[in-house]
Amino acid sequence: MAHTELDLLERRTIEDMLNAKMPVSKIASEIGRHRSTVYREIKRNAFTDDELSYLNGYYGVNAQKTAAARRARRRKLVRLADLRDAVIAQLKEGWSPEQIAGRLGFENRPVRVSHETIYAYIYGPNGQSEELARYLPSRRKKRKPRYARRSRGQVFPPERSIHQRPDYVKSRETFGDWEGDLMIFERAQGKMNVASLVERKTRYAVLFRNNDRSSTHVMRKLMDVMEPLPQPARRSITFDRGFEFREWRRLRPGIGTDAWFCDPQAPWQKGSVENLNKRARRYLPRDTQVAALSNRYMKAICDRLNGTPRKCLGWRTPTEAFREELMKLR
Per its UniProt entry, which superkingdom is the organism in (predicted)? Predict the structure, then answer.
């Protein structure tokens, strides 16, 4: 069944039944809606005013007007062609919805939209027909409602921040601290990607192919790749805050590896793997047919990267430096 908005009759029924002290489950049954729909309706469209607190409550007619005003705000980008064209132009320049909305406010435009309105348009019928989501810095096929999205602060807690990472990791004093990332390719490759890992002290690189971007899949493959190493050679990994890494808690019980996370929108804080990605792009450009990448080919790329002398290693190769560190663990 297609989703339909509550109408005025339903809202008046909710008001009458609330006044009669009826439970929400009973109201939902009466109007043929799910109880969560009724709970959400009451929460979003009830009248509240600190100065007129004695009038606070749910009123059907007022709720109808509130909901209509909200829909009108959402439709700004449908109704106002100039505003819509300006937003789409900035999306195509690579601006995020937050940047576009913020700039409209900074320029004191007479008509503005919030970033949530822009996201709603992008993932709505009009935006999908124009494939606007492909211009977003972080793309998903669908977007969860704002109130259903999980806070990244919960996924990546403050105690796992890069600022809490021990100083010896930052200074590259110890062996076994890595950085990790995903290399993403053109849309035609679907969810396929290449994971990149680099050991911070020796610059030793590991690349492996993934058929999926789900965090469960990525972490499972990562642990399979890292597990053969001695535990001191896999002390920690620093990631960005991409949701591909939200299952990071598997690392500690799985292979005894800690996880640290960069600040939001701060990829330079894991500069070693960013540098690795740049070097690897010589062999893995964005139009690469990822499905055709064999394990032998991936190993050949790693061997070439790890066999190149590096100034920061006193012109040793990463392979030589990595082997020396492994020998010290014996």
Answer: Bacteria
pTM for the structure as a whole: 0.56
| CA dist list (Å): 295 to 178, 208, 229, 289, 302 | 22, 8, 19, 14, 11
Least Cα distance to 118 among 104, 110, 106, 109 occurs for 104
How much is the pLDDT for 101?
A: 87
For the chain, the domains span 8-73, 75-134, 155-328
Q: Which two tokens stand for residue 168?
A: 């010896």
Q: What is the mean pLDDT of the chain?
A: 87
Diameter over CA atoms, the chain: 82
Instruction: For residues 59 and 199, give the distance between their C-alpha atoms in angstroms, rounded to a whole number.
Output: 62
For residue 174, the model assigns a pLDDT of 94
The pLDDT of residue 191: 83
Task: Extract the runs of DSSP E, i.e. beta strands, from the chain.
Answer: 177-184, 193-199, 205-210, 236-239, 258-261
pLDDT given at position 235: 96
Q: Which residues, listed in sequence order, are joined to residue 197 by a DSSP beta bridge?
A: 180, 206
pLDDT band at 26; cut points 50, 70, 90: very high
Does residue 2 surpass a pLDDT of 50? Answer: no
Beta bridge partners of 179: 198, 238
Span 12-16, mean pLDDT? 92
> Are the beta carbons of 119 and 140 closer than 8 angstroms?
no
Q: Is the dihedral of CA 228, 233, 234, 239 positive or negative?
A: negative
CB 285 within 8 A of CB 184: no
pLDDT of residue 1: 41
Q: Which amino acid is at 246?
A: R
Please check whether the domain covering 155-328 is classified as CATH 3.30.420.10.
yes
DSSP letter for each residue of 275-321: HHHHHHTTTS-TT--GGG--HHHHHHHHHHHHTS--GGGTT--HHHH
Cβ–Cβ under 8 Å, residues 215 and 243: yes
